[in-house]
C-alpha cells in the first residue's frame, strides 16, 4: 500500500460532541467528523432535530452517531449529554463548541443589559462550561481537542450585532487562555467564521435585501461560505493532522471583508 496523505485527517477511534449540530454549520461539522470515522454525539436545543440529523449522518457515513437535546446554558443538561456520550461510546476525545447566535439590533445606541448578558451566556459561558464538563474525559484521550466556532464579527466593527460580536470576542480570549491552561494536554483552537448563508440569518432578523447583498461579499474569494467550508477547517483542527496547532484562531471567511453589510 502506498503513502496515505490523508491518514492524519482520519478520526477513527475518536468520539466527538458537536453542540448546535442539528442543522446548518453544526450539522456539516458532525457529518465531516463522522465521515472521517469519529463517533459523534449531536447536542442541540431541538432534540428531535438532533436525533434526525444523527440518524441521517449515521446512514450516510456508517459511523455511530447519536442526538440528544441540550440547552448549553443549563449546567445539568451539559452534564447529561457528556455522561450520555461517554456511556454510549466509552470515552470522549473531541469537543466542538459550535453553538452561537445573535440577533440584529434596530437601535445599537439603546441595547438593554439583558441582551448583552444573554448573548454572553450563550456564546461564551456555554463554551467554557461544556469544555470543563468534558475535561476529565479529554485528559484521558489521545489527540484531545476543543474547537470553538467563532465569528469574524468579533474582529471588525459590528455595531448592528453588538452583543453577539462582543460575546464572540470574549470567546476568542477565553480560547487562548484555556489553550495555555491545558498546554501539552488538550489542544484548543477557534475558527473565525465569515458570511455563511444559512437559515440562521433570517432567524436573526436580517431581511431578504441584506441577505441578497451578502451573496456577493467584499472578500478575496467573492462568495459567501458554505457550511462545508467551515466543517473542513474544523475537521483539520480536530484531527491528528493538526497536532502541532493549538491556541490559534483560524480565519475561514473568504479572505475577510472591509465593508459593513448591514449599515444604519
Automatic annotation (TrEMBL):
Keywords of this entry: Oxidoreductase
Claim: Transferase is one of the keywords in the record: no
Annotated Pfam families: adh_short_C2
InterPro entries: NAD(P)-bd_dom_sf, Sc_DH/Rdtase_CS, SDR_fam
Coiled coil feature spans: none
Record flagged with keyword Oxidoreductase: yes
Record-stated family: Belongs to the short-chain dehydrogenases/reductases (SDR) family.
Name the UniProt record assigns to this protein: SDR family oxidoreductase
Organism per entry: Bosea massiliensis
Amino acid at each position: 500500500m502506498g503513502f496515505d496523505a490523508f491518514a492524519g485527517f482520519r478520526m477513527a477511534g475518536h468520539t466527538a460532541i458537536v453542540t448546535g449540530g442539528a442543522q446548518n454549520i453544526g450539522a456539516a461539522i458532525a457529518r465531516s467528523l463522522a465521515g472521517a470515522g469519529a463517533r459523534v454525539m449531536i447536542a442541540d436545543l431541538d432534540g428531535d432535530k438532533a436525533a434526525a440529523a444523527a440518524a441521517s449522518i449515521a446512514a450516510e457515513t456508517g459511523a455511530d452517531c447519536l442526538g440528544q437535546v441540550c440547552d448549553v446554558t443549563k449546567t445539568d443538561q451539559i452534564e447529561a449529554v457528556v455522561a450520555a456520550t461517554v456511556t454510549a461510546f466509552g470515552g470522549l476525545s473531541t469537543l466542538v463548541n459550535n453553538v452561537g447566535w445573535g440577533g440584529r439590533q434596530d437601535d445599537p445606541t439603546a441595547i438593554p443589559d439583558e441582551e448583552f448578558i444573554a448573548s454572553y451566556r450563550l456564546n461564551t459561558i456555554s463554551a467554557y462550561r461544556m469544555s470543563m464538563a468534558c475535561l476529565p474525559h479529554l485528559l484521558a484521550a489521545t489527540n484531545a481537542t476543543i474547537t470553538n466556532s467563532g465569528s469574524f464579527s468579533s474582529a471588525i466593527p459590528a455595531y448592528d450585532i453588538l452583543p453577539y460580536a462582543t460575546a464572540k470576542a470574549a470567546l476568542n480570549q477565553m480560547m487562548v487562555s484555556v489553550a495555555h491552561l491545558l498546554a501539552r494536554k488538550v489542544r484548543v483552537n477557534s475558527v473565525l467564521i465569515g458570511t455563511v448563508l444559512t437559515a440562521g440569518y433570517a432567524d436573526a432578523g436580517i431581511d431578504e435585501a441584506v441577505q441578497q447583498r451578502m451573496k456577493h461579499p467584499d472578500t478575496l474569494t467573492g462568495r459567501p461560505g458554505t457550511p462545508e467550508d467551515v466543517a473542513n477547517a474544523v475537521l483539520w483542527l480536530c484531527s491528528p493532522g493538526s497536532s502541532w496547532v493549538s491556541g490559534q484562531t483560524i480565519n475561514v471567511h473568504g479572505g475577510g471583508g472591509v465593508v459593513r453589510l448591514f449599515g444604519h
